[in-house]
Amino acid sequence: MEIITKINQWISDAKSDAQEARSEAELFDLEKKYLGRKNGLLTNVLKSIKELSDSEKKVVGPRANEVKKEILTIINNQRKQLQEKQSQSTKTIDVTLPGKKIVSGHLHPLTIVQNDIVDIFTRMGFDIADGPEVESEWYNFDAVNVPDNHPGRDMQDTFWLRAEKGKKQSLLRTQTSAVQVRYMEKHTPPFHVIVPGRIFRHEATDASHEHTFHQFEALMVGNDISVANCKHVVSVFFSQFFKKDVEIRLRPGFFPFVEPGFEFDISCTVCDAKGCSVCKQAGWLEIGGAGMVHQNVFGASGYEKGKYQGFAWGFGLERLAMMKYNIDDVRLFHSGDLRFINQFR
Ligand code: PHE
After folding, report:
1. Looking at ligand 1, which residue's alpha carbon is closest to its atom 4?
2. pLDDT tens digits, residue range 191-206?
3. Pocket test for ligand 1, best of 255, 258, 263, 317 (most atoms within 8 A of CB)
4. Which of these, 309, 340, 326, 144, lies nearest to 227 by C-alpha position?
5. Which distant-in-sequence residues (6+ apart) come within 8 Å of 191 by Cβ?
């Protein structure tokens, strides 16, 4: 029968076609040619079977179905082989290709600055200390000469924590000065220590104010520590921190825990004191308070009053980071905006 010869021929045709196929797309076309629902060669044969005589039907029908299965097996086998070849070729490593970049985490700019500060003071022989962020009223205020009802408390709007009945209220520390008495209770002069840390104030935020920010406190106590020592340490620190000479300026200022007290200014490092938007054309920038430790603070620490003298300061860390990296909005630090943070990678 002519038609049977034709169908049988398709098997060997399909075999050689399949072997030549170089891609799965080519195999798909082949499948379509023989088995496609519309105009597939075998599909057409099966469709036209009803036009054959009964005796032909009996032979052609089963054979066409067998051939259909065989061609499908041929194509599927070839497909498998192609896939295996492909996965083998992707398993070999092309060492000349550029590597995939692994995105790793990195330090926050404030951490970088804090580490810099700690490094500089460690080199100068300072100890580094820490204290709790949830603090008692005693260490944050009373112990540093700011008793209840003292107007000095108004200088720092406070986040008070709800207290259990009969217990004293705690607070989020408003200043790293809260660590002064904690440290002195455990150490005897002479000593010099730096306390970097996070502090909190109940304040409205704007480009230069945050409710959560950082300070680093200094405390240097001995028998004859003076304002001159303070000025020297500060100017050495700033020259190293900004890697250029920085002028410092003291103005009288009031803080209950120091006497005398100062406001500390440094020459603007952004414009080299010529005047710019960061220093508001003044050439100077206020970076924090300082002074000679009040004898009442020594008293609260358990020291004999009048025996020692020393200086303390509390400088803002964000301020320094902003100057170092030319950042004009303090709120960026805690914004969580990765476009900002990733610049410090
Ligand atoms: N604690 C003060 C403040 O936060 C700064 C300060 C520290 C001033 C130590 C004098 C001495 O404003």
Report:
1. 175
2. 999 999 999 999 999 9
3. 255
4. 309
5. 127, 219, 220, 221, 222
Ligand 1 environment, Cβ below 6 A: 175, 177, 255, 258, 261, 288-291, 312-314
For atom 8 of ligand 1, which residue has the closest CA? Answer: 289
* CATH number for the domain running over 109-344: 3.30.930.10
More confident residue, 89 or 207: 207
Shortest-distance Cα residue to atom 2 of ligand 1 = 314
pLDDT tens digits for 46-87? Answer: 888 888 888 888 888 888 888 888 888 888 888 888 888 877
